[in-house]
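Hi X.,

You mentioned you wanted examples for the new student's onboarding notes, showing what a folding record looks like when two proteins sit in one file. Here is a clean example. The first protein comes first, with its sequence line followed by its structure tokens.
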Amino acid sequence: MAERPYILMSCSVSMDGYLDDASDDRLVLSNEADLDRVDALRASCDAILVGASTVRRDNPRLNVRDEARIAVRTAGGQSPTPVKVTVTGHGRLDPTARFFTTGDCEKLVYCTSAAYAETRRRLGSAATVLDAGASVDMGRIAEDLYERGVRRLLVEGGGTVNTQFLTADLADELQLVVAPLFVGDSRARRFVGDGAFPWDPRRRASLAEARAIGDVVLLRYALSPRFSATEVMAR
């Protein structure tokens, strides 16, 4: 079996399990203290992966912000910000999105074979475009990232990507932050979609930590036997 990185999933949700609301404006779920925790988490990883819909809708930078953390990374021979990775079935990505234009790091785009030529044309020098095959397979992508030197991969969703990683039993750890609010709108994006998940009433996930961070709560779940070997790194 090919090797893959340690895969750590991180996201924030409302109390009713939504990543966002249905408006055009991004719903902020985390507080400043938790955002700083996420910044430290990003700084500890080799790559950050999000879905193409997240790039389009949220226009994230995904950069390490804290100068001291950047200094530690560069002193160790790493780029200031981890490699940015996105996955697309159709290649509908804007090369002027902040995912591509911010951060001194490599940007990788995995796309289907059908969209490969058009995606390369569209993005030009903004990113390295990689042919992921007839259909996107997160397991194969994780293995390819390992071959590229990624040993610790942070997955920040959205819902489709979360579902793909979790239903394939690829995640080693889940850090789920719950914000003290409800969205109450089924048009909004949920944490995951429908699927056959390995954790169910017969196999419950192991809760490793529950911690209040201001008005939000961090829940850390161990999802694989590899969790214990890297637990200290996630704090």
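Then the second protein repeats the pattern, sequence line and then tokens:
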Amino acid sequence: MNAISHTAAVARPIPYASDERGLIAPAVQARKTGTRRRLALGRAIPFGALIGPALLLVIWSVGSVAGLIDPRTLPAPWSVVGTAIDLIVAGKLQDHLMTSAWRAAQGLVFGVLIGTTLALISGLSRLGEAIIDGPVQIKRAIPTLALIPLLMLWFGIGEGMKVTTIALAVLIPIYIQTHSSLRGIDSRYVELAQTLRMGYGEFIREVILPGALPGFFLGLRFAVTYAWLSLVVVEQVNATSGIGYMIDLARNYGQTDIVIVGLALLGLGCDGIVRFFQERSLSWRRTLAD
């Protein structure tokens, strides 16, 4: 009897022992019934991303109709929609949104470019890491909003301070996630690139950049959130327009419906746009969600 048949003979009684105890392994059960369990997440639910928000909207509506929610604290959904329509008809919402979008876009672009560049230098060079990683980690430990008084002294209270604050808030998540992805690339890919005698430029293009993209997009999703958060704060400093200015002004007058309209504008759409580009750029990957 060779080693393979001996191993099979020894291993064969184990399922029967499990049967006697009524503890048949799922794999054995599936084999006996002719079925096969799928270990992945299963099929995607159509419009699954909308189910959670829709459920919250239903709860909000039911609470408003039943009188469980004080309209002074949280107006009904239809009241918020009516306020949004009034602001659009008056042209105020578009003006505030365009001003905020321009400020956020400038800070986001500068922060992403600087953060990605620093991550590439630090992630691909020991010397670069020694020079760059320490100061970036120090900045990470200091909340960006806590730097606003210092930035006001350096840049004044104009647009420069606002854009710089947003860029600093964006830089950190981009750097951290991209750097982590670079350092997490499997060394076997590096060995394969050496075996194929890839040049350094081809190595960066074919191995490094695709390997860093998942971390980059994760950092970008955090960066967009931090950009809007910083925007709301800096637009309360010497600003005459913008979503943050509109929210702060509405707070002073107790206009909760306008505050919610402003928050809804900040929360809707941005993360979905990033996820759209993430799925298109990483379509080559096969993950648990596929």
